UniProtKB/TrEMBL annotation:
GO molecular function, one term: glycosyltransferase activity
InterPro entries in the record: Glyco_trans_1, Glyco_trans_4-like_N
Annotated source species: Candidatus Sulfotelmatobacter kueseliae
Signal peptide: none
Annotated protein name in UniProt: Glycosyl transferase, group 1
Keyword Transferase recorded: yes
Database matches in Pfam families: Glyco_transf_4 (PF13439), Glycos_transf_1 (PF00534)
């Protein structure tokens, strides 16, 4: 099989979900593939996040922001000089680009077309939709991170199912480094003053994540536990975005009367997040929309029971290992949390099922499939390599 020259856009490596995807795809390609040539396009400091690279990996530095006219031109100019067989863009983009080679695009979700456009005028919403459809139609292949995301692409944009490949996400390998030690527990006790039982949420706190209802459910749960005389010092810890941009959540906490029991910790590094996953009584993830939903799987890899939503991709991802709830029903969320907290046999079953479910997803199997797609697309376009693209 002839070698293939592949460019990968790594400019969004610092972002929460896309960054995890880029880092793990590139690291796994480095372990599996010493034959093909890879060109990583993006700022050199981001390449350092990946770690040591094999000799068949090279870096083309770009400094302009991705979402800028200069960034658009710089990326296209870099590609033109590389003579690649294909380029992998690991995220959905909306502005059509005259690529000098075929491109593969990974689509993580359609949330921008489900929520944000409602805040825009009809003209801009329609324009954004038209441009996104053009970009999707121009892709040589689309990689969807779940069957749910694939169906959303088909339904919203009319893209043929044959052009969409489902390649699942998996968790970062750093979440697989065993359980929390006494030193780990001492670290979160000293650094974060966490010495009590807690429920955990990790992720962004944008509206579709449904964090406000989770707080309300926690407030009702505290009342129920008080009746049971159980878990009097239970807290809810929320890890993710800075709260300053979401004052409504702070008001929800005060209105629900749990200001002494809910803590917002903002961003924490993975090495610390894994300790919180391991120590949590329950991981709560009542999101209204997920293209995949990595955090529940990260929690399950630590044997932590998960309560999550019965909508979008989440049932597909968690299987039978989590308790599913209606995310729009505060009392449904509360009842699930109460049951998991107080039913020890259920907790034991969930722990074992969580380990089994998380083990079904691996970056090695996903990246092997991505490699197959690379070769398929390169073979289809190989006679045209080196030719100038026709003018738009």
């Amino acid at each position: 099989m002839p070698s293939v020259k592949i460019a990968i856009d790594i400019r969004r490596m610092s972002e929460f979900g896309v960054g995890t995807y880029i880092r793990n795809v590139v690291r796994t390609l480095g372990r599996l593939d010493r034959e093909n040539e890879y060109v990583l396009i993006g700022p050199p400091p981001k390449v350092q996040e990946i770690g040591a690279l094999q000799p068949n990996f090279h870096v083309v530095p770009l400094t302009a922001p991705e979402r800028s006219v200069q960034g658009y031109r710089e990326f296209r100019s870099a590609l033109k000089g590389l003579d690649c067989d294909l380029v992998h863009v690991p995220n959905l983009f909306s502005v059509p680009r005259a690529m000098p080679c075929p491109y593969i695009m990974t689509v993580h979700d359609m949330v921008e077309h489900m929520s944000r456009p409602r805040e825009q005028s009809g003209f801009w919403r329609s324009l954004r939709w038209q441009l996104t459809r053009r970009v999707l139609e121009g892709a040589a292949r689309i990689l969807a991170v779940s069957n749910f995301t694939k169906s959303e692409i088909e339904k919203l944009f009319g893209i043929s199912a044959e052009r969409i490949e489902v390649v699942y996400n998996a968790i970062d390998e750093r979440f697989l480094r065993g359980h929390a030690s006494a030193a780990d527990r001492e670290l979160i006790a000293q650094r974060y003053q966490v010495t009590y039982p807690f429920l955990l949420y990790a992720g962004s706190i944008s509206p579709h994540k449904n964090v406000a209802r989770m707080i309300e459910a926690f407030s009702v749960l505290k009342t129920e536990l008080e009746k049971d005389r159980a878990y009097p010092d239970l807290k809810l810890i929320i890890i993710g975005d800075d709260l300053s941009g979401n004052p409504d959540l702070r008001r929800t906490v005060v209105r629900s009367g749990v200001q002494n029991d809910v803590r917002f910790l903002g961003f924490v590094p993975i090495e610390v997040l894994r300790i919180f996953y391991d120590e949590a009584k329950i991981f709560v993830f009542p999101s209204l929309y997920e293209g995949f939903g990595l955090p529940p799987m990260e929690a399950m890899a630590h044997g932590t029971p998960v309560v999550t939503s019965n909508v979008s991709s989440l049932p597909e991802v968690v299987g039978r290992a989590a308790v599913l709830v209606n995310p729009e029903n505060v009392f449904d969320i509360m009842r699930a949390l109460h049951r998991v907290l107080t039913d020890d046999p259920l907790r034991t079953r969930m722990k074992e099922r969580g380990y089994e479910q998380a083990a079904k997803f691996s970056w090695e199997s996903s990246v092997r499939r991505i490699l197959e797609v690379y070769h398929q697309i390169a073979d289809e376009g190989r006679p045209h390599r080196g030719q100038q693209p026709a003018a738009d």
